[in-house]
Each structure stands twice: as structure tokens, then as C-alpha cells.
Amino acid sequence: MNQLTSVGLAAATLLLAACAGVPAALKPEGQHRLAERVAAQGVQIYECRALPDAAGAQWAFVAPEADLLDARGVVTGKHYAGPHWESLDGSKIIGAVKARADAPQAGAIPWLLLNAKSVGGPGRFAGVTSVQRIHTVGGATPRKTCDGTTLGAIERVPYRADYVLFSS
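Now predict its structure.
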């Protein structure tokens, strides 16, 4: 087997591993290849806000705030409001939710498929067109009371997730 075939088989194995157990609705359509898989560790930020009809209050999602980590646990970027994923090399993407599925683990934020587009310079994330958020742990809406006495309260709920980045 030549080196090119070995690389192709390794990439196919990574793609299959990334997609194993992922609902079909969260798989990118068309021809996509696995670009990278990064772990995220941080918080999901919520604010207690009044409901529009003045009938109470509820927690509203504000933004994620997380470090992006490589397989060795080294910080390689950050994830924040937008949602944005930004590499230390300056490349950056913004995502828009295309599909969602309940997380298999209680108390975890949903798994997502997002369409992505580059909004930064050249680099690791520049060619990314889809992002999966899978294997989520934590991050769900706070259990603390949100009512007229706690309006404006901010809660930072710890979470972890894997982000699988695809390019077309």
C-alpha cells in the first residue's frame, strides 16, 4: 500500500469514527471531508430575562465561551458568541444552526449541525463549511430560579463538547 492510500484510509477511519452514533440529520449533505476534530471546554452563558407577555421569566441562552483543545489538550483556539470558532492562527468561522438532536446524556446541551463560513484570515478554519457539535456534557439551562426577583442574573454553566469540522 502506498503512502497516499494509507493517508486516505486514515482519513476515512477518522471520518467514520467522528460520525459513529451521530443521527443522520446531523451529517453534512453532499461531498464533505473531515477537516479537524477539536474538543471544547468552557461554559454556556445564560441570563434570566422577562418573558415578552410579562407572564414571568426564563433563562435565555446568551453565548458560549470555551477553549478549543487538540488531542493532547493544548489550547488551539476559542469558541464564543456568534457562534464563532477562532484558531490561534487567526482563521475564524461563524456558524448557523441547520439541525439539532437531543443529547443522549441528561443535562447536556443538544447536538447540532451548523453551516459555517469563513469570516477571518487564511488558516486551519478557512475552508470549513460545516460543524457538528457532538458528545456534549453539561451546559443545559440552569436549574436555579429565574423569576421577577432574579431578572438580569447571569449563570455560567460548565460544558464540554466535540466539534467536528468538515470542508467541502
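The longest helix spans residues 3-19.
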